[in-house]
Backbone:
C-alpha cells in the first residue's frame, strides 16, 4: 500500500520538473538577460562601426544620449514597479521643471534649481493624491493632467521659448547664474565623462538604495504584486504611492533641468516623447509591466541597451524616421518577451 | 426632509447629459460672436472637425470594449497619405485607392487585436508601440514630403459642396452617417451588445459563452477601419496630406480622448455611446472657431477633461467606500422593529 502511494506521489513531481525547467530560462531572462543583450549590442556596435565604437567621441555621445533618459528612468521605475504602467505626465514635468528654473534664474542658480525641483515635487504630489488616495485610472489621469499642464504653460508664457541669458538681468550675479546654468550640461570630468552621466549614475545609486534597502521599496513590491493584499496586510498604500509618484516627478524635473541646459532653451515641447522612450528603457531592463518584479540594476542595463541600440542605428545609417520603425518593433518585441516570460513564471 | 428632496439640484442628471450641456454652452457663447452663425462658417467648422470625429468614433468603441487605441491618429494620417499617393503617383482611381487605404486600416486593427488577445499584451502598450511603427512606415513611404491631390478636383469639390439647403458639407454628412451606423450596431446587434459586455467584465463575458478574443479583435478592426476611412476622405477633402497632419496645436488623439470622456464613456469600459462622443466633438469643433488662440483652446479643453475625470474618480471613490457596508442600517433597524412612524 505504501509503495503504491509512493509511486503515485512520483508522477506529479515529473510535471513539476518540467515547469521549473521553463521558469529557469524565464528567470534568467528576467534577472540577467539585459546585460547579455548589452554585451551583444556592444559586439554588434564594434562590428558595425569598424572599430570606432570605443573612441572618446562615441562613448561621450552614447553617455550624453543615455543620461537624460537614465535620469527620468531612475524615477519612473518606481511607478512601473507599483503596477501603474506609466506616468504620462513626464513630458510636461520635464518641460515645466526647465521652464521654472529658467524663469527664476535671477535669484541665483541654486535657488532656481530648487524651484525647478519643487515644481516636480508639486506635480508628483498631485498625481500621487489622485492615484493613491482617490484611485483614479493612472494612465488617463496622468495623460489628462499632462494636457492641463501643457495648457497652463502655453497660456502663461504665450507659447514662447525661454532663454536663460535673455531672462537674466544685466547684473553680474544674474549673468553668472545663467552661465552656470548652461555649463552644467557641458562640464566634463576627465576626458570624456560628462557631469550629466555622473548625475545619472548617482541617481541610479540612490534609487537602487531606496528600492532594495528600505521598507518603502518592500512595501512597493507588495503593492505592485497585488494592491488588495497590500491594503489588507496593513500597508499605507496611499502614502507609499504618493511617495513613488513624487520620486518619479522629482527625477523627471531634474532631467528636464538638464535638458533645458543642454538645448539652451526651455519650452513646453521640451520633454515630448520621453514618456515612451523611458518606458522602453525600463521595460528592457526586465521590470514587469504589471508590477512587482524587476530591479534598478536591470533598469540601468535597459537604459544602456537603449542608448547603444540608438547609437548602432545611427552607425548603420538609418535616419531619424526609420529609427521610429525599428524602435517600435523592438519595443513590441521586448514587451511580448516580458509578458511571455511573466506568464511562464506563473504570474498572469 | 421631503421638501428638501424635491428641490434638490439634480447633479446626476447634469452629469449624464453633460455633452448636451457642453454643446449648448458653446452654441450660446456663439451668439455673441460675429459671423458665427453663417452657413459658410458652420459648414467649414463641421467639415474641418470631421477628421477628429472619425478618430473619436474609433477611440470610443475601443474604450467601450475596455481597451485604448492610441494608433487612431497615425492610422488616419497613414491612410490619407496612402490614398493620395496611390492616386497621384500611381494613377489608381479614387474608389480603389480609398479601398486600399481602408484595408490597410483593417490590417492594422487585426494586428493590434492579435497582439492584445493572443500575445496578451496590454492594449495601451501595444498601440503605443504600433504608433511608432506606423510613424516609421509613413516616413519611409513619403520620405517626409507633403502629398497633394494633384489636378483632380472633382471628388474634392463633391466632398466640400454643401448638401442642398443644409449648412453641412457632404464629408460631414458621411461622417454623421457612419456615427449613427455604429450606434445602431452597438445598440441593436449581437456584436454590439457583446462588445459592451466584454468591456464591462471580460471574465463574465467569456463564461457566458462570448468569444471574447474574436470580439476584441473585431473591435480593434472596426476602430482602425473607421479611422483609415476617415483619414482617406479627409485627405481628399482638404486636398493635401502631410505627416504632421493635425499635429499643430493639440494632438487629435488628445481631443478624441477628451470627447470620449466628456461624452460619458466610462474609463473602466462597458458603458458609453458613440453619439455622445459625436456631440462633444462637434462642440469642440465649434469651440475651436470660438476662440482662435491655440493656447486658450488647450487650456479650456484640458480643464473640461480634468473636471470630468475628477468627477468620475470622486464618484467611484465614494462608491467604493460604501461597498459591502449598509449605510442605512439604523433606519433598517427602526423599520424592522416598527418604531418608525
Residues:
Amino acid at each position: 500500500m505504501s509503495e503504491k502511494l509512493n509511486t503515485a506521489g512520483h508522477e506529479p513531481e515529473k510535471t513539476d520538473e518540467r515547469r521549473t525547467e521553463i521558469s529557469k530560462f524565464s528567470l534568467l531572462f528576467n534577472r540577467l538577460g539585459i546585460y547579455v543583450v548589452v554585451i551583444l549590442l556592444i559586439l554588434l556596435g564594434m562590428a558595425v562601426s569598424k572599430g570606432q565604437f570605443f573612441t572618446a567621441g562615441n562613448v561621450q555621445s552614447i553617455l550624453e544620449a543615455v543620461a537624460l533618459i537614465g535620469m527620468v528612468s531612475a524615477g519612473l521605475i518606481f511607478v512601473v514597479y507599483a503596477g501603474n504602467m506609466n506616468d504620462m505626465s513626464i513630458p510636461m514635468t520635464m518641460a515645466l521643471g526647465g521652464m521654472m528654473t529658467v524663469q527664476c534664474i535671477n535669484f541665483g542658480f541654486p535657488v532656481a534649481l530648487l524651484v525647478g525641483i519643487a515644481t516636480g515635487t508639486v506635480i508628483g504630489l498631485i498625481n500621487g493624491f489622485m492615484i493613491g488616495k482617490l484611485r483614479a485610472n493612472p494612465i488617463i489621469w496622468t495623460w489628462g493632467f499632462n494636457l492641463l499642464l501643457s495648457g497652463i504653460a502655453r497660456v502663461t508664457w504665450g507659447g514662447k521659448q525661454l532663454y536663460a541669458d535673455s531672462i537674466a538681468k544685466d547684473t553680474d550675479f544674474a549673468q553668472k547664474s545663467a552661465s552656470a546654468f548652461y555649463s552644467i550640461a557641458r562640464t566634463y570630468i576627465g576626458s570624456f565623462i560628462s557631469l550629466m552621466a555622473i548625475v545619472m549614475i548617482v541617481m541610479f545609486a540612490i534609487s537602487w538604495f531606496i528600492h532594495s534597502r528600505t521598507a518603502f521599496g518592500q512595501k512597493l513590491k507588495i503593492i505592485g504584486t497585488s494592491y488588495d493584499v497590500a491594503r489588507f496586510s496593513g500597508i499605507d498604500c496611499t502614502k507609499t504611492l504618493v511617495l513613488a509618484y513624487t520620486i518619479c516627478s522629482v527625477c523627471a524635473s531634474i532631467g528636464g533641468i538638464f535638458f533645458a541646459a543642454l538645448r539652451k532653451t526651455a519650452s513646453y515641447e521640451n520633454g515630448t516623447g520621453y514618456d515612451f522612450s523611458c518606458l522602453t528603457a525600463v521595460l528592457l531592463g526586465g521590470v514587469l509591466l504589471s508590477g512587482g518584479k524587476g530591479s534598478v540594476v536591470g533598469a540601468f542595463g535597459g537604459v544602456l541597451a537603449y542608448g547603444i541600440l540608438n547609437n548602432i542605428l545611427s552607425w548603420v545609417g538609418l535616419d531619424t524616421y526609420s529609427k521610429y520603425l525599428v524602435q517600435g518593433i523592438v519595443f513590441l518585441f521586448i514587451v511580448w518577451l516580458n509578458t511571455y516570460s511573466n506568464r511562464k513564471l506563473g504570474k498572469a | 426632509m421631503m421638501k428638501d428632496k424635491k428641490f434638490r439640484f439634480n447633479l446626476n442628471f447634469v452629469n449624464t447629459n453633460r455633452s448636451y450641456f457642453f454643446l449648448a454652452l458653446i452654441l450660446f457663447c456663439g451668439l455673441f460672436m460675429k459671423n458665427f452663425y453663417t452657413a459658410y462658417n458652420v459648414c467649414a467648422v463641421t467639415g474641418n472637425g470631421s477628421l477628429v470625429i472619425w478618430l473619436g468614433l474609433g477611440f470610443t468603441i475601443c474604450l467601450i470594449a475596455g481597451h485604448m487605441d492610441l494608433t487612431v491618429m497615425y492610422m488616419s494620417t497613414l491612410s490619407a497619405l496612402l490614398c493620395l499617393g496611390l492616386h497621384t503617383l500611381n494613377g489608381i482611381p479614387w474608389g480603389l485607392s480609398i479601398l486600399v487605404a481602408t484595408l490597410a486600416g483593417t490590417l492594422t486593427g487585426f494586428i493590434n487585436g492579435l497582439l492584445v488577445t493572443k500575445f496578451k499584451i496590454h492594449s495601451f502598450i501595444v498601440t503605443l508601440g504600433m504608433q511608432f511603427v506606423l510613424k516609421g512606415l509613413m516616413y519611409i513611404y513619403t520620405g517626409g514630403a507633403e502629398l497633394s491631390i494633384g489636378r483632380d478636383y472633382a471628388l474634392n469639390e463633391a466632398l466640400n459642396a454643401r448638401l442642398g439647403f443644409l449648412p453641412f458639407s457632404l464629408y460631414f454628412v458621411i461622417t454623421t452617417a457612419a456615427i449613427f451606423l455604429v450606434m445602431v450596431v452597438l445598440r441593436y446587434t449581437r456584436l454590439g451588445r457583446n462588445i459592451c459586455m466584454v468591456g464591462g467584465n471580460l471574465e463574465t463575458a467569456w463564461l457566458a459563452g462570448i468569444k471574447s478574443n474574436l470580439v476584441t479583435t473585431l473591435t480593434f478592426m472596426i476602430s482602425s477601419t473607421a479611422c483609415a476611412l476617415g483619414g482617406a476622405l479627409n485627405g481628399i477633402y482638404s486636398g493635401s496630406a502631410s505627416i504632421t497632419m493635425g499635429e499643430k496645436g493639440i494632438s487629435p488623439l488628445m481631443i478624441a480622448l477628451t470627447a470620449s470622456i466628456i461624452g460619458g464613456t466610462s474609463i473602466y469600459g462597458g458603458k458609453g455611446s458613440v453619439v455622445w462622443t459625436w456631440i462633444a466633438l462637434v462642440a469642440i469643433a465649434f469651440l475651436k472657431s470660438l476662440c482662435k488662440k491655440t493656447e486658450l483652446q488647450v487650456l479650456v479643453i484640458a480643464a473640461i477633461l480634468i473636471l470630468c475625470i475628477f468627477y468620475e474618480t470622486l464618484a467611484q471613490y465614494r462608491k467604493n467606500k460604501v461597498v459591502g457596508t449598509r449605510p442605512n442600517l439604523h433606519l433598517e433597524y427602526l423599520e424592522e422593529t416598527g418604531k418608525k412612524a
The radius of gyration of chain A is 23 Å. Chain A has 14 helices and two strands.
